[in-house]
Sequence to fold (634 residues):
Amino acid sequence: MSGLNEGTPTNKMSLKEHARQKRAQSARSALTGYMFLLPWFIGVLCFMAYPMIYSLYLSFHKLEVSPDGNGLLYTFVGWDNFKYAFLRDNVFPIEMFNFWRETILIIPVTVLFALIVAILLNQKFRGRMIFRAIFFLPVIFATGKVLMELFAQGQGDLPFAEQYDLTKIIYDTFPPALAEPMVGVLNKIILVLWYSGVQVIIFLAAFKTISPSTYEAAQIDGVTPWESFWKITFPAIVPFIFLNLIYTLVDLSTYSFNPIVNHILSNMINLKTGYGYASALGWIYFVIIFLLVALLARVSASLNQRKG
Amino acid sequence: MAKLILKKAIPGKPGISGASLDRIKRLLLGQRLNDGLIFKIFTYIMLVSISVLYLSPLFYMLSTSFKDISDLIDPAVHWIPRVLKVENYTDAIKGLYYFKALGHTLFMSVSAAVLQMFSCALTGYAFARLHIPYKNVLFVIVLLTFIIPTQTMAIPLFVLFSNLGWLNSPLPFIVPALFAQGIKGALFIIIFRQFFSTLPKEMEESARMDGAGALRTYWKIMLPLAKPAMLIVFLFSFVWHWNTYFEAALYLKNETFLAMSMQMDFMQGRLNDLTVSKDALVAGQFDMNEPIKMAGALLIVLPPLVLYMFAQRYFVEGIERTGLVE
Fold:
């Protein structure tokens, strides 16, 4: 079409006109888009950006109640709060180290557990709906205080773990360097069980993205189920494995009952350290989480690239 | 697995011919592994045993909450108490300020969940479908808000809300929800974005051609289609607001507004006070036992549990249909 009319002056005009109209239209549609985003934008500014900047500001200051008794006194202290966290605070680095050592083990175990459960729930069998309903229960309860109360009483422990003294068996069979974290994970098995609900949902949804005809074709070609899992299912869900790793990481690091969070809170009300120091701790914590998430996202992206 | 087959199929039935052996093998192993008997049994065993782990705390709560002290101590009474002691519940209701807390928390959770559902749907739709310059940059901000721990922002938010005079009110939960923030707001935006991007484009286009504006198209055509995603987001948001402990403990410092998740901590003290006023004794020490605690715990989780029981079918189906991930 354009080839036919090329070169005629009247058409050049209309082409320009067309371009201008197109620009105007795109500006209009961009405006509509931004209008849709407006509430979110206000939210981010008030409840994300402002608190983040303020807390960053706080982390470089020492806060005191001013001598006249009203208002707060900000004293700039540079990196002191951060230095204090690593050099003087005798709880924070140790708690941090222990927390991450355990968490880094728990995360893959949780995702693996979620994957197995999702595979089982994805089968066709009688009573599937009932089992699904039960398996989503943790999503409802996991965040609650009530659950912690129950766990404190030993509800939710693995019954056979105590019965057969699993801890001792692990220590007997594995070298101590391996056995210690394994027992740590075993003690936190509750977390694995109860904080895998959303991950199971994500995996189930991921299975739905693979078309059934792929499996049928593979079956006709004589591919065994074992092979079809590794050749069809697994590559398709690799991105979701990473998604789940990230989700689990974020979930475990923000849940209200973890020791770091409590340490930050206790420093907040501690007069000697106060808001400034607590903010610095919050930032150190965030930076570590951010780096881990970035690392996982990076690995996931590079795997994707190699595949493409 | 292989060992199991050997044991069951071959040594157990020594005199069978090749064909019937084949049939047995197929029955046990199935055509495609996952329709064989062995796999089915294995699946059921796994599922049942994990289900038991999930359900046992609930049953423990239920059974203990009706026990009286003698049942609690008696080792012969494990699951079913000899007498149903309903007073545990009346005590727990008193100690939790149950109905006041129920009203407050229901109001807070429902309004926050509804607001979050609509605001996040709007945002998610914009990210999925609308023409927005620098969309990817903005979406990175969404992802960033997802991974920032609440604890990093707890202090500034606390200062902000206290300056606004919002402490001890439901506003710190409701207002951020209105602006697509609040508890896990970013996650809900991501869910809606995924959902809307799976819908066919033709629907909007035909609506546009009929002369509907962007907002009208969204409200009349797209949002009604998003019902499964909305249900999931509502349920998640409601439950997470109901269970919130960290935020509640931060913002609610007195008894003008009660968050259910915190009431367990105050039960003992309140019941002590009640004992004092009733018997006019000097040191009131209410005998706060396990069954009363469990009755309280059950009362606390009851509303989300009832909601889940009703919504469960749609919830499970919704997850299948939302295409939560794509």
Summary: The two ends of chain B are 34 Å apart (CA to CA). DSSP finds 16 helices and no strands in chain B.
